[in-house]
Each structure stands twice: as structure tokens, then as C-alpha cells.
Amino acid sequence: MLRQIEGSQAVAETVARCRPQVVCAYPISPQTHIVEGLSRLVKSGDLAGCEFINVESEFAAMSVAIGAVAAGARTYTATASQGLLFMAEALYNASGLGLPIVMTVANRAIGAPINIWNDHSDAMSQRDCGWVQLYAESNQDAVDLHVLAFRLAEELSVPVMVCMDGFVLTHAYERIDVPGQEQVDAYLPAFRPRQMLDPHEPLTIGAMVGPEAFTEVRYLAHQVQRRALDRIPELAGAFEAGFRRPAGGLVRPYRCADAETVVVALGSVLGTVKDTVDEMRDDGVRVGVLGLGTFRPFPAGALRQALGRVARVVVLERAFSVGTGGIVSADLDSALTGLPQRRYTVVAGLGGRPVTKASVRAVLDAATADDLEPLTFLDLDRSTVEAVR
Amino acid sequence: MSAVKFYQTGSLAVGNRLLPIEQRSVQATGDRTNAITCGHRACQGCGEALGARVVLDAAMRATGGKLIVVNATGCLEVFSTPYPESAWRVPWIHSLFGNAPAVASGVAAALRARGRTDIRVLGQGGDGGTVDIGFGALSGMFERDDDVLFVCYDNEAYMNTGVQRSGATPPAARTATTQAVGPEPGNVFGQGKSAPLIAMAHEIGYVATATVADVRDLERKVARAMELHGARYLHVLVPCPLGWGSATSETIRVARLAVQSGLFPLFEAERGEVVAVTPLRGAPVPVEEYLRIQKRYANLFSPAVRADVLARIQALAERNIARFGLCRAEES
Amino acid sequence: MFEVRIHGRGGQGVVTAAELLSVAAFAEGRYAQAFPSFGSERTGAPVVAYCRLSDGPIRLREPVLRPDALIIQDSTLLVQVDVFAGLAPGGAVLVNSRQDRRALHLEHLPPDRLVIVPASRLALTHVGRPVPNAALLGGFAAQTGLLALDSVIQAIRDRFRGGVAEGNVAAATEAYRLVRSRLEEQVDA
């Protein structure tokens, strides 16, 4: 149903439609409105058959989720930033054990310095932990990705993180088609665990694996993620068929077909970049933007195919690897190995600094003139940093 | 029938065989689950392996076999599940070091959501995983009154990683991180926490202490815990011959001496109040008798007897005796 | 696209104002995006919220840098914050105050651009609390003609219940009529 609603509320209602059986929650800005919404839905009886657990930390949140899903319940939680780091050990545990937990990450910077605003440092810091990472471009996208996430997670027995920009999406009111219960039920079948803790069929989960078998176990996890590269587009197609709008997918090109320069980006900044691309196209510049809907597994093949003949790629990052450079850029470089392109990394919007159309235009004007450093920090106040030296 | 003389061995082993079957311990029955079966890699004389077997077989009996077990990282988990083998004959999950109580809470939540509260949940771990790194999760589970029985097998140090000091290590004990050197050898006085008292402070429905020296008592407490719902806590003293430096054949005797000296009081509590105490049999045993047979306390006896330290430990025992009323005129 | 920026202080319902504006636009079948300038929540501190209105989907996610209209919920901000930054040429300004344009030092803004409404007083009268946001939205609808009063009323009833809802509706309606009549006076004048 079409609603003018806060992003977090829409996500809460959509997660509720996915019929989770256990929701565990520890508050951290800017995810709080999501779990508050779910708690209201459970307490009022709107979301029946669901246990809502107020836990004592994010580490507890993921731990409770692990126990719950291992015991056969569809399970959900949400976090951001420091909370994601606090549960880092448990993230690896969940993926290593193949537990299909779905979690929203309301992307937020990581301290120090403490900063509650949006960038991608949190999810990026956990890019190797074995969770699938999907990134929402808008609140409609965020809502749709959660439905897709449960289906993907349970099919492959892999945990999935749905990343949506903190505050920028979570706290924005916009027009969203919130899926109805029947629609979701048609797309998402009941949870049938691949294995679970059951007195009728006792099994041991979480044994100690030594050098003689560890490599094989980890290789199998790698294969599962690679299977997701095929499955995600298929599930996106099934979603579009059922809900009559596109959602998810690996990459989303916009005006890239004849582009000389393509911007690669993730998350809500794509909206601003698309507006910028339209303006530049009106001025005759052959520019396009490619959104990454899936960051893990990294869709190297799809990117190589989309960017193969492009002369120039500008990666707009919302996080960076300290002392080293871009994160998405590094993965992209590896995917585009051997291709003779000019590539630029632009680190933008750290700690919630708005990424404006004007700034994007300026940096793209520089890029198209090849008058740009390989690594740029967008809108860096040089006078401040130079004064410090 | 000729009169039979019972030979008192300090345990009820002989008497057990001659008891009617319904009075025998779970361990004495042929149809016990054998929840942790043979072939695991525990050390000879491991108190924790013994404790886990007694506890889980009793829990399986009490729950009619409807039990799920959550295990923290530690000796028990490591020696029981060397992939591709497992010693567990019950549904069992190893979580992480600091989250067994939380994972157990999650299992309980799932069972509630699925309408299967007939299946019960038991979380277990060592002292490190319970009082230190798992403390937050333990307190959270208690505070929410989640339907979990948590069992701590307390061998008073981080044994699996090489005998390092934990928040349960008693004063003067040698560990790898409280070495027997310097003016105050071994673990210092004035530190440490009592998990049972902390559990009581959460006012949960059942808290009890037990040791591997009294199988029946331990089994009874497990059964009692399983009669109840909500958060419950059982703290079991399990000597570790390797870490304590005691003889592998003496594990049960060492545990009994811990009790008989007053250093490890046996009691049960409900909602923050002590409701039952096991009094000492006769006069308390001097702590020295308990300490002398463990090399982790060798620094108290060699090169010279540290009468001052012994006196302080004796005072701790006497404090427990007074506090819990362990010396009574007549037994209850 | 029409962009609105709302200035106020924490506790005055600035964020709610932006949200209600977006809901009113939605009621008329338009697209709208409302979001706050995100700060730690602190009563009394300056707060900014934004609302974009459009006939088509809105993709832009930056703060409103070039507002077509400003709503100032607290006139003390006029001397504290640069509320007029980026205001589009001819942009509309709506100020909550009981003072006149001279006392507010806003004589440079002609009457067809600046409207002053005693919204806090209206709210106090009709709702019992000096939260001016609903009244100001009524004034905004009249000033800009962008939204029907009925849409504003629908948004208010969508968000609030009972006496609070009806009080806010009454405040919005009175503000609407006040601004309408004043604008009509100017036309006649």
C-alpha cells in the first residue's frame, strides 16, 4: 500500500510482514526507530507469534539471534556503527555456522571521533565476515531488500545484512509502497532450516575444526557466497514479477550505455548522483552512474561487463581504508584488472557530511577533464588540515 | 540372609548398588542418556567432564529427553568436539566464549515462538566464560528471567588456554598469570567474585552450589532446577588435576575437602534468599588439609610454611561457615 | 520541485512540521521528501528540517540549500542563525511571531513575500501548548497556495488523535484564514 511514511517505520512494518519469530534489539542511533516500531507491533499483537527480546548489548543481540535461528526460528535484528563492531565476533560465528539471520545496518560512521551520522564505515569494516551485504538506494529499495534478504538467506543458509543510510534514509519521510501480507507470503515461504537443534535428531553445531579440515569448510562458505551472485539476480527477477517493481540485483546502471565516464557508488547518494548525471547529460557530457546493489559478494563479473568499454571510472566512496585509500575502489580495481581505464577514488560524505549535487558536479567536471588526483576527499577543508600541521 | 557390613568408602558407591532402583542416582542406571559419551579428549581425572556427565544425564532424565544444550568455548567444548567427532548425544551448540547465556536465551525464545516450551534449555560453561567474559550475557539472561538453566563448571581458572587467572581464582592460588613469586605469591587477596551470590542478587528463581564429590546432591539440584521455569543458576566446583596440581585419582576427594573445609559452601537459594544449606559433617576440616594436596598452593608450604596466608584462608572458610550456618548442632 | 526549509528549536515540532507537510502533499497525490538536519536531540537547540515537494519522484538527498520557502518557527533564531542562507529570489518567508515586520527588522522583505503569524499564540489558544507547527502549516498553505487547507487538516488528523488533533486543526484553520484575509487585503490595497 502506498504510504507517506518514515523509512524506519516502513522497514519495521515490512520486516513484520516477513513473519519473524524472534526479534532481538539493542538501541543505537540511527536504527532505534526500526526496533521501536517492531516492539510496538509485537506488543500490540499485530505481529503475532514473535518473541521480542530486549538484550543487554549488540553482542548479546547477535548471540540471541544465533541461538534463536539455530533452534528453528526466523530471526531479525538491527544495528549500526559501534554496535556492529561490538558483535563482530558473533557475525563471523553466524556466517561460519551458516545461520540465515537478516539484519538491518543503519549505516553510520565509526568512532573515534564519536560521530552518529551516516557513512559506510561500519558495514565496510565487516566486508570479509561472510555476510551478504545489500545496499539500499532509497527507502522503497530498503523495504524491498528486506523481503528479498529473508528469502536469499534461508535458501542459501547464509546471513544477510541490509544496509540503509542512517538518518538520510532511516529518518526520511517519503512515498513508499509498503508490501502487503499476501504479497510477502507469496514471495517468502515459511522457514525450513537446513539443520536445527532438535531433541528428536540431536546434532552437534559448532565443533572445533583443526588444520586438517578448516580450509575445506571455509572454501565451502566461499562457494555459498559465489552462488549468491547467481541467485540474487534470479530472486530480484522473481520479486519484480510478484511486486511489479524492480528491486535488488547486483548492479544498477543509469545512462551508462554510451558513457565515457561512469560513477560507481552505493546507497542513498545514488539519487543525488543521478540528478547530477542528468544535468551533465543536458550539457552534453557522456556520463553515467552505476549503483552497486550488492557489495558482498562483490559482483566483479557484472561490473567488468558494465564498465568494460568505459574510459573513466570515478568511485564515490562513503568510507575509506585509513592510510591506504578507497575500499570499493580496491575491489573494483581487482575486478577491472587489465582494462585500460583511468580510475579515480573520491571519498565523500564521511561522518554525515552532506554530499551535494554541486560538489559531485565539480568533482565530475574535474574527472572528465582528467584534472583530478587519484584519491580525493570531497569538500575537504584544506585550510583546517593545513593549519594543524 | 547373613548380615552385611557396609564398608564406608566416603562415597555411597557401595550402598548405591544395594538400594532400590528408584533411589539410585541417575548415573547408576543403565538407561541414562550418557549425554557426553566416551572418546572425548579430557585429561585423566577431569572434574568438568564428570560434572557435565552428571548434570546432563540428570537434566535429560528430568526433562524426559527434551533438552537443548548451549556450550561456551572452553575445555568442555574443545575436548568434546574435535571435528569430525562429537561426544554429545544431545542437541548441542557451541557459541562463542562470552555469549553462552545469550545464545541459550535465543534458543529459549525460539522454542517459545514455535510453541515448544516443552523442550528445555541448558547453558553451560567454565568459570571464565561465566564470571568474566560472559558476565554481561549472564546478567542479561538473569535480568530478563529467560527460561534457561545455566551451569557453571568452576575449576577456578582459564584452564583450556593454559591455567590463567579468572575472576573465580581463589586467593594465593598459583596460575600462569598469578605466579608463585614475589612477596605475595599466587593470586592476590581481595579480588574475585562469587557468581552464586551475584545470581542471588538478581533474585532469580533458583540458585544452587554443588560439587562432583556428591553425585546425588548434584543430580537432585539439577532435577529441582528443572522443576522450575525462568532463569536458574547452578555453580559446580570441578577440580582440575592439571591446573590445581592434584592427583588425577583425587578429583572427588579434593572437591569433598573444599566443601568440608567451609571454603565451598553448599546451599540453595530462591529469589535472593538462602532456603537450604548442607551442613558440614562434623567439625570443619582445616583448610590446610585441602590446600596441601594441590600444587597450586605449594607456595604456602615451601620453602617455608606461610602461616599468615593460611590464617587468612582459614578466616575465609570461617566467614562462610558463619555466614551460611554450615556448622549446626543437629543436621536438618 | 519546490523546496521548503523549516527553522526552529528542539521541542517545537520542527521535524513533525516537515513530515506533516510531506503527508499533506501525499494526500494530494504528490511526491514529497521530508527529513531533519540530523543532530543530537536537545530541547531548545536550533533545529532545521526540510521538505521537498514534486510531481515526480525525488532522488536528490542533500539538505535544502536553495529554499523556495522558509518557515521560521522561532523568531529568536533570526538573530542567531543565518536562516535566509540560499533563499531563492522571490522566495516566501513565514515567521511565527506576535511582533510586526519592523520589530523583527524584516522591513526589507515586502508583504507579498513575508507573512507573520502568531502561531504559538494560536496553538496555546486551541491546543493548550505553544507548539506552533500545525498553525504555521495552515499559514503556509494560504501563503503559497501550494496545498489545500484540507490536505493539511488530513495530515494533522493522520498524526494526532482526539483533542490534540482537533486543536491543531483549529489552529491551522485560523492561521490559514488569517493569512488569506491579509493577502486579500494586500491585493485590494
Structure explained in plain terms:
The complex is a heterotrimer of chains A (389), B (332) and C (189). By secondary structure, chain A is an alpha/beta fold. Chain A has two domains: 2-243, Thiamin diphosphate (ThDP)-binding fold, Pyr/PP domains (Rossmann fold, 3-Layer(aba) Sandwich); 251-388, Rossmann fold, CATH 3.40.50. Chain A has 14 helices and 16 strands. Chain A has helices at residues 7-17, 32-43, 58-70, 81-86, 88-96, 121-125, 139-156, 181-187, 214-243, 269-282, 300-307, 328-335, 357-368, 382-388, and strands at 2-6, 22-25, 51-54, 75-79, 102-107, 132-135, 160-165, 173-177, 204-205, 251-254, 261-265, 287-292, 294-296, 312-317, 342-347, 375-377. In chain A, helix 3 packs parallel to helix 5 (88-96), helix 7 (139-156) packs across helix 9 and helix 10 (269-282) packs across helix 13 (357-368). Chain A is globular and about 70 Å long. The mean pLDDT of chain A is 97. Chain B is globular and about 60 Å long. Chain B is an alpha/beta fold. Chain C is of the alpha/beta class and 189 residues long. Chain C has a single domain (2-188), classed as Pyruvate-ferredoxin oxidoreductase, PFOR, domain III (Pyruvate-ferredoxin Oxidoreductase, domain 3). Chain C has helices at residues 14-27, 119-126, 133-144, 149-159, 162-188, and strands spanning 2-9, 31-36, 46-54, 69-72, 92-96, 114-117. Chain C has a six-stranded mixed β-sheet with strand order 2-3-1-4-5-6, covered by helices on one side. The longest helix of chain C is centred in the last third of the chain and has 27 residues, at 162-188. The chains are: A alpha/beta (389), B alpha/beta (332), C alpha/beta (189). Chains in contact: A-B, A-C. Chains A and B meet through strand 3, helix 3, helix 5 and strand 9 of A and strand 1, strand 2, helix 4 and helix 6 of B.
Q: In the CATH hierarchy, what is the class of chain B?
A: Alpha Beta
Strand and helix order of chain B:
HHEHEHEHHEHEHEHHEEHH
Assembly state (oligomeric): heterotrimer
Question: What is the rounded Rg of chain B?
Answer: 19 Å
Q: What is the percentage of strand-forming residues of chain A?
A: 15-25%
Work out the number of β strands of chain A: 16
Percent range of helical residues of chain B: 25-40%
Question: How much is the average pLDDT of chain B?
Answer: 93
| Major sheet summary line of chain A | 7 strands, mixed
Give, in spatial order, the strands making up the sheet with the most strands of chain B: 2-1-3-4-6-5-7-8
Write the CATH fold name of chain B.
Rossmann fold
- CATH architecture designation of the largest domain in chain A: 3-Layer(aba) Sandwich
* Helicity of chain A, as a percent range: 40-55%
**Gyration radius of chain A, in Å:** 21 Å
State which percent range the strand residues of chain B make up.
Answer: 5-15%
Count all strands of chain B and give the number. 8
Q: Which ranges of chain B are low-confidence, i.e. pLDDT below 50, for 5 or more consecutive residues?
A: none
Largest sheet of chain B: 8 strands, mixed
